[in-house]
Amino acid sequence: MSPQQQHEITTLLVLIATSAAIGALFNKSLLFVTIVLFIYIIFMLGNVFKLHDWLLEQKSELPDAQGYWGEIFNELHLLERKKNKQQKLLSVALSRFKKAAEALPDGVVILSQQNEIEWVNPIASSLLGIAYPRDAGQKINNLIRHPNFQRYLSKEKFSKTITIPSPDNAENILTIQIIPFGYKQKMIFCRDVTHIHKLEEMRTNFVSNVSHEMRSPLTVLTGYLEMFSDNIPKDEKSFKLGLENMYQQAMRMQRLVTDLLALSKMETAPIEHAKQVDVATLLITLKENAEVLGQHKKQTITLDADEDVKLRGNVHELHSLFANLINNAVRYTQENGSIKISWKKQGNEAVFSVSDNGPGIAAKHIPHLTERFYRADIDRSRESGGTGLGLAIVKYAAERHDGRLVISSSLGEGSTFKCYFPEQRISA
Ligand code: ADP
Questions:
Q1: pLDDT-based confidence at 297, cuts 50/70/90?
Q2: Distance, CA 357 to ligand 1 centroid (Å)?
Q3: Mean pLDDT across the chain, nearest whole number?
Q4: Nearest-angstrom CA–CA distance, 245 and 265
Q5: Please, which residues have CB within 8 angstroms of residue 287's CB and are 6 or more apart in sequence?
Q6: Does ligand 1 have an atom closer than 6 angstroms to the CB of 337?
Q7: Residue-by-residue DSSP string for 218-247
């Protein structure tokens, strides 16, 4: 028993004894004790009412009371203050957590025990298409309906992540991880991995395209080799024809490997800025090579190059860029066709242009021409020794020199390929 409680009991006993003694003087002890106890009960009730009012109204001011009741009120007030302080600390911690979660580069959703949405950060809102706070209280499996997610959510263990299309836009790919916390609560972490997914898809496509491109020349080569190892043809003509075919297929593979190497070199080598390339002189050599390449076609090739316009960059990459465009024009343009090559300044930019009056390209193919292994006309490409990588190399080399490739063409009228280089790449 606390000293205050002992004091209160002592006071009550003293009151009873005193009232009994005074009552005895009038021979009415019981009446006096009853009156005193009645007053005591009224006093107690008054304080109980005060306490009730205080609790109901949640006033910060303490009710006025003396003695033991004063102590009780005081204790309650201290408790109340402690609770307020803890609440403040909790709300500061909560708002700090929300701010941190809002700044996260990943989406975060907090779920209740029943998998209802409690809180969502802005990234998760946009990735998962959850409108917060409107969707607060909604079951998460009503909003993310992908079967893989539904299965994942119903599991007990969440050590693995899953990958699903975004419920908001199926073209975006998300990884999702659930982290259990507190008492059966869950936190969902989601991240946009569309870019990585696309790269992975490109890599797989690339490997399968390269294998496909390699397979046909290899089939021809092994076919002839098997045939010759069984029985070398007596007839010199068919032997020569076989060798010729083998040579052509080997050359095709060599071109493919050369182009693949050129692409991979550009992907890994740092970009050069310092070296000055004499484009006009380079183009004279490339024009001569083109004339040799297309000599049987009797095409007219003209070159108009401004010697004063020089470019800063990598000579091998620029050689590859210009050669691919010029050689394509020669390869795809018919006999007696004409090809115009030019290099000059246009406004602040330097422009390299190759136009031909060849077969042209249908508009639907133009946006895809710079994709690896894309061909508008597969037969013509193969027949003229194409690898399907030429324009991919051109685009890559142009971008590495801060340039852009613009293709304009219409079927039956010819094509123009232009590369624009910005002022900072031009050196006088
Ligand atoms: P390829 O090795 O097949 O020529 P490219 O990447 O150099 O590959 O070109 C892609 C496709 O663009 C070619 O297959 C061809 O269909 C088309 N093409 C490129 N240049 C020309 C051109 N000057 N005239 C017509 N079609 C062209």
A1: very high
A2: 14
A3: 90
A4: 30
A5: 301, 303, 326, 341
A6: no
A7: HHHHHHHHHHHHH---SSHHHHHHHHHHHH
Give the Cα separation of 63 and 370 in Å (integer): 84
Assess contact for 301 and 339: CB atoms under 8 A: yes
Q: How far apart are CA 329 and CA 90, in angstroms?
A: 72
**What are 79-120's pLDDT values in tens digits?**
888 988 999 999 898 888 888 877 888 899 999 989 999 999
Highest mean pLDDT among 57-66, 85-94, 256-265, 299-308: 299-308
Of 392 and 181, the structure prediction assigns the larger pLDDT to 392
pTM for this entry: 0.67
Angstrom distance (rounded) from CA 398 to CA 321 = 7
Residue 214 has, within 13 A of its CA and on its CB side, a CA count of 11
Choose which residue among 321, 332, 396, 415 to substitute to test ligand 1 binding: the one with the highest number of ligand atoms within 8 A of its C-beta: 332
State both tokens at 402. Answer: 């801060």
C-beta of 252 in contact with ligand 1 (< 6 A): no
